[in-house]
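Researcher: We're teaching a course module on how sequence relates to structure. For the next exercise, students receive a sequence and then see the predicted structure as tokens, so they can try to spot secondary structure elements on their own. Here is the exercise chain.
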Amino acid sequence: MLRRIPSPAAIRQSPRRLPDIVGQSLASARELSSLGAFVSLLDARAHQQAQSVVSRIESGEQLPLGGYIVAVKDNIAIKDAPLTCGSKILDFHQSTFSATVIERLEEAGAVIIGKTNLDEFAMGSSTENSALGIALNPFDPDRVPGGSSGGSAVAVAAGICHASLGSETGGSVRQPAAFCGICGLKPTYGRVSRYGLVAFGSSLDQVSPFAKTCAEVYDVIRVISGSDQRDATSSAAPVPDSACLEPFSGKLRIGLVKDFLEHEALEPDVRIAMNDTISALKKAGHELVEVELPNAKYSIPVYYIVATAEASSNLARFDGVRYGYRHRDVTDLASVYDLTREAGFGKEVRRRIMMGTYVLSAGYYDAYYTTALKVRRIIADELVNALKYVDVLLTPTTPSTAFKIGEKIDDPVSMYLSDIFTVPANLAGVPALSVPWSLDSKGLPIGIQLMAPHFTEEKLLSIGAAIELLRPEGK
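Model: And here is the predicted structure for the students to work with:
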């Protein structure tokens, strides 16, 4: 099921090949439609962009993403393209503007071929919650690709495109990256503009890139990073300016999060892979030290209070009045809201709206939401403090490899625990990276996670690139 397209560097050497290669990518997306990676393809736009990029390269313009073919998660706005968020409530909705990250990708020479599948409104860990059909893992189509950015991960892993954009709220890029055997980076909160990203949890969301290698992830993150006057939460911190990523060559002090490595949910194959990673790093001369994060165990309950509270507020705008789906049997304003939202939102989204509304309600706000914010601060401070004494923290990305379709869909608590190792970085706002390491006994990818101090994406990715060189041969 896997395809291979020429590298961006090869395309830049023969730029006139780009329109044909874009056509091949679009054809591959259709040939592999059973994987459910894409919800819409942008043929005319992609071919027009390809011709423009060829002209720009031949005129001598230096394009950081010239030759890159990219897919975009369908909760990121592209002008005049569908924007469904994987939900019935946005049936037939087309965006009237483009997100900042889209403008920056196109300015840098990327060709965007389509919008990718996702859990509805980015709420899920398997891409089974999409109203537009589930996505399948290209390593085993009986298994999930992870979520919520499953379609974006599949598009890269299957070789349809070079890179893709997803969004991260609690692990929605790193988890599918691990399940699909590619790299996924959650940048520092504020590093990338959220303008044009449909909000789920506003204090957690970040647009985040996927690619096959850390070097390719770096190319994308370098372009989309930076302050944006349309997003008050975006940071003015300097953006990395190295032309390309080099693997880290010095000696590192790496923190091993003891509680994560000993967690009862960790599957034997993942535990073995972590031990192999640790052995390889020691052999390479790096110092590994144990680190304790005693309050990280509260990350999942804290996350599902904060994120659902923010989702409850953010999704209030989808009311059947201004845009999107409206139930045909409405008779008055109350029925517009009730019938439209009941039919337009899927089961998981309704569950999270109700959870969020509950924790924000009178009599429960202090007991749940206020307490969760206090514990979030403790978890964040612990994590940030630990990173003062090490270069990076090393953990598994996920407790297991990709699980079977339907295995957890009726057990939301089990599904939520898929993100047990990824959520702390979101709560703290630090950058975190999943790098593929090996395959388990069933031939499924295993990812390892690195977390680093705020705004150190370039160093984090260079360490990831060094780890890529230590991977076991044939894995």
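Model: If you want an answer key for the exercise: The chain has a mean pLDDT of 96. The two ends are 18 Å apart (CA to CA).
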